[in-house]
Amino acid sequence: MPAGIVQTNRAFAHNNAWANHRLLAACAKLSQSEFEAARAGFFPSVQRTLNHIYVIDLFYIDALEGGWLGPRAWENEVPFPSLSELKPAQAAMDKRLIAVCDALTPELLNVPVRVNRDTNVQTERRDRLLMHLFQHQIHHRGQAHAMLSETNIAPPQLDEFFAEGEAPLRAAEFAELGWSENSVWRP
Predict the structure, then answer these.
(1) What are phi and psi of 61, to 5 degrees?
(2) What is the DSSP letter of 187?
(3) Mean pLDDT of the chain
(4) pTM for the whole thing?
């Protein structure tokens, strides 16, 4: 039976958390100076790129939860200067996104979300807002991944959520996240 759009969004939320977990674990091997070092990318360092992912997650996830935080989300562009601060904050944000997606129903996907843009209110269908958020995360994670390749730390595999041959590694990482394949793919 093909997965419905609700299950697909749940899978995207889990994949997002897993990719963040893998990328941040690899980046944790960087020294603070390597984390902050100037690199080629839209944001000029791994630190600023990963913090950007967090603040935009905060902006949109707050809106998806019915909040009104708006642009205050990025008043501090680097709320977590070190990876030891950022990693648990991003994990908590990823759990919030999973909870949003776990609460989805086919009907709720079409319900508009009000996004506080400060000078105006953007109204966006929930499914479209989720697609935008997932695309944003993938886009900037790719940039951080490329920046990591400029260091002596090997960038982790991020694009094969359930790759054949990775079952033991996946099981260990899922256990760290408190998941199983059954919990991710439950109906």
Answers:
(1) -65, -40
(2) -
(3) 91
(4) 0.91
Q: Are 140 and 49 in contact (CB under 8 A)?
A: yes
pLDDT digits (tens, 9 = 90+) for 60-82: 999 999 999 999 999 999 999 99
- Position 151: which residue type? T
- Residue 124 β-bridge partners: 113
What is the model's pLDDT at position 179?
Answer: 80
Specify the DSSP class assigned to residue 69: -
Instruction: Identify which of 29, 71, 70 has the alpha carbon closest to the alpha carbon of residue 46.
Output: 29
Residues of 84-114 as b/e, b for ≥16 C-beta within 10 angstroms? Answer: eebbeebeebbebbbebbeebeeeebeeebe
Burial zone of 37 (CB within 10 Å; 0-12 exposed, 13-18 middle, 19+ buried): middle
DSSP-derived secondary structure for 125-144: EHHHHHHHHHHHHHHHHHHH
Widest CA span in the chain: 50
Angstrom distance (rounded) from CA 147 to CA 135: 19
3-state secondary structure of 115: strand
Of 60, 58, 63, nearest in space to 93 by CA: 58
Q: Are 160 and 166 in contact (CB under 8 A)?
A: yes
